[in-house]
Amino acid sequence: MLPRERWLAALEGARPDRAPCDYWGTGEVTARLLRDLGCASERELWTRLGIDKCIHLAPVHPGARESGWHMQSLFSIWNVRTRNIEYGEGIGEYEEDAHHPLADIETVAEVDRFSWPDPADFDVAGLRERILEWKGYPILAGSSEPFYLYCRLRGMERALEDLVVNPTIADAILERIGRFDYGIIRRILEECRGLVDLVYVAEDLGTQNSLLMSPRTFRRFLKPRMTKLIEMIHGYGVRVFHHDDGAIRNVIADLIEAGVDLLNPIQWRCRGMEREALARDFGASLTFHGGVDNQHTLPFGSPDEVRAQVRENLEMFRSARGYIVAPCHNIQPNTPTENIVAMYEAVHELG
């Protein structure tokens, strides 16, 4: 089977020839794998490791200084300024927001006066051509992560505060973000009919132990807008890939009601995210993606321990609608190459 065929089987509740697998890693890790494994391109790397890579694409905005599939991180079009922060004594770096353009606004009129990006400015026709270059691979195109972007526009403290003391401001900003997401994703799906398998509709709502907001607050501000967007996406016959870090157990039922098809990244060391319980309670409704621990096992375990965890996941998620083997978030630069290789070898040996 081709990678796309395996993914579609896992999403439909069918059984592919083996479990599909995916790759999430930092840029530093990808560069090292290319070097260590002697691969000239990422496509060659996916083939070398037998990875059913989900290809993440997005239309290009002519005014964006950045490139990438995650449109909420094209910070220049949102007037968010960033800086790079090194970590781990220089083994890698992350981009952090350093200026929040809506930090000081106090009225809905100020929200309306902000220079909001226009979905019509994106080059959607060029996206179709890029998708056709990846025949046989699953395609994810378009992204929505409203509260993630809200926090970059407003600053995380003020964003969380707004949900309690400034609900009018919260509604105004989220409505603007939602209008943009709906518009650009609809343009993508209209232009690329039959070519897109998944749209990324996500958030980052979990910490190691709990949610950033109460389930009640999620239902008030985020769930209705998410549901509307997902209904539109499903209308094109496209499924929804939902990424949500950490301990999100208390809103998984809500995500299912909103229409989420695939849940990532399954950080099972977080409170309430035990794999067996997730498979038992939500497996009839979800395809799970991730679950190979990148907090302890991948960076600090042995190749045999990595293989054992892949086996555990395959067994625990056997009763779910589907399971796609992947790290439970981006593989970090302190992860040995042999452990990464062991994860994908295990998929082919056991999957």
Describe the 3D structure.
There is one protein chain. The chain is an alpha/beta fold and 351 residues long. It has a single domain (3-350), classed as Alpha-Beta Barrel (TIM Barrel), CATH 3.20.20.210. Helix content is 45%, strand content 14%. The chain contains 15 helices and nine strands. It has helices at 3-12, 27-36, 42-49, 108-113, 124-132, 146-154, 156-165, 167-191, 215-221, 223-235, 249-258, 275-282, 297-300, 303-316, 337-350, and strands spanning 55-57, 81-87, 92-99, 139-144, 198-201, 239-243, 262-264, 287-292, 322-327. The strands form two sheets. Strands 1-4-5-6-7-8-9 form a seven-stranded parallel beta sheet, sandwiched between helices. Strands 2-3 form a two-stranded antiparallel ribbon. Strand 2 (81-87) and strand 3 (92-99) form a beta hairpin. The protein is globular. The two termini are 13 Å apart. The mean pLDDT is 97.
In the predicted model, the low-confidence regions spanning at least 5 consecutive residues are none
- C-alpha geometry: globular
Report the strand count.
Answer: 9
C-alpha Rg (nearest Å): 20 Å
The number of helical runs is 15
Structural class: alpha/beta
Instruction: Compute the average pLDDT.
Output: 97
Number of domains: 1
Distance between the termini: 13 Å
- Strand arrangement, major sheet: 1-4-5-6-7-8-9
Output the keywords.
351 residues, alpha/beta, TIM Barrel, seven-stranded parallel sheet, two-stranded antiparallel sheet, 15 helices, 45% helix, globular
